[in-house]
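fwd from M.: "can u put these together and see what the complex looks like"

so here's what she sent:
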Amino acid sequence: MASPTPTPLNTRPDPLTLEVVELIGEVVARFHEDYEEAAAEHALTGAQARLLSLLCLEPLPMRRLAQRLKCEPSNVTGIVDRLEARGLVERRPDPADRRVKVAAATAEGRRVARGLRESLRFAREPLAGLSEAERVALRDALRGMLG
Amino acid sequence: MASPTPTPLNTRPDPLTLEVVELIGEVVARFHEDYEEAAAEHALTGAQARLLSLLCLEPLPMRRLAQRLKCEPSNVTGIVDRLEARGLVERRPDPADRRVKVAAATAEGRRVARGLRESLRFAREPLAGLSEAERVALRDALRGMLG
DNA sequence: TATTGTTATACTCTATAACTATA
DNA sequence: TATAGTTATAGAGTATAACAATA
């Protein structure tokens, strides 16, 4: 029997799906703008802000950091260098494996990261305009998208 | 009287809002990954892909292009240079103002942009997993967010 | 031998400032 | 004089390849 699934992968999406794609693109663009702007307010680049935020959750070896940021390990060296020069991050030896260097946020780094989170207006303000029911619907739809 | 508005700007967001913010961040990250990957499949950088996509909607003077991309006009010169070298974009004189150069996608540029759009899996596939009602709810919530 | 982090290199994107050709 | 586009310059992110230290 024919499947009732909406938007099969190899046919054209329906107008509703197209509009949602368009809207997601706009949200993504605004979110990014807002993130870069918030980072700049703290004299950080986007990459630096993302790395610092990751390290505020837990210290990570350089290699792992590269995996999380989805970039080459060689890039992480420079980003950590610049954050370390500002005292926001430090490199610690791993006693279990002397090849490994574990990057960790300093107290100052965590302070800056907190300020960064609080600067993120867009992710919060427009949400304030939604009713609780709308936010629940949005949450469920987003969960569904992320599988 | 106390306002019943959810998430006033200068207080901590409630857990629901926090989760939605988290989810939006993930969607944004995945969307971006997907976009960069699709661009790379066509030997384009993200910036080149965005500029080319804009020009497929309508030709634009360099200055306007910079405004749309939210970057300095001097950057647009290089991006258009690289796309022009590959025959995907061309610069046309503006008869009304000889200072202006209008950038336009070539037929080949439009072909590449079409392939690019079709490569954007993430924006479409996860949506296919949502019911029509969920997609409507998502659309309305996104519209609400964008004001 | 394999792995971790780094260095060296080259390219792109970015902003700033100075230049040119028009207006 | 003001504006459109460019050039020149410098900093940052990115990938690739080669390297040292360690496993």
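replying to her w this: The beta strands of chain A are 60-61, 89-93, 101-105.
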